[in-house]
Design brief:
single chain, about 120 residues, mainly alpha, 3 helices, about 60% helix, elongated
Length: about 120
């Protein structure tokens, strides 16, 4: 039972890290778009690695002492660590609760599948 509680806590940490990272990126996009004309603003939708790099580099150039990029990366690290720890605790909780993964080594006998006794000829 303790593994399940630890897994839930790890997933909560992962979701908190995800929230911190997303809010930091949204704030950086708002900072970058603040001084741009309407046609040159970066959209908050449709993310891909090059766009994130462009937002980070533009934000660092305009705000070199801002803590938001660092906060974003700490959120990503917390999210990854929480997910990995949660999966580790869940994988440890299965056998601890008596629920092994895959086929059981010695499944309980099923009477309907029992083969008939072989006949002996005399």
């Amino acid at each position: 039972m303790a593994f399940l509680i630890l897994a839930a806590a790890a997933f909560a940490i992962a979701m908190a890290g995800c929230l911190v990272a997303n809010l930091s990126v949204s704030a950086m996009v708002d900072d970058v778009n603040r001084g741009r004309p309407t046609g040159e603003q970066i959209s908050a939708f449709g993310w891909y690695p090059r766009k994130l790099h462009r937002v980070l580099s533009t934000h660092r150039a305009a705000y070199p002492t801002s803590p938001r990029p660092r906060r974003m990366w700490w959120g990503v690290v917390a999210m990854a660590a929480g997910l990995l720890a949660g999966f580790a605790f869940l994988s440890a909780a299965g056998p601890a609760l008596g629920r092994p993964y895959g086929r059981a080594a010695n499944p309980p006998p099923n009477e309907s599948l029992r083969l008939p006794e072989p006949r002996t000829s005399r």
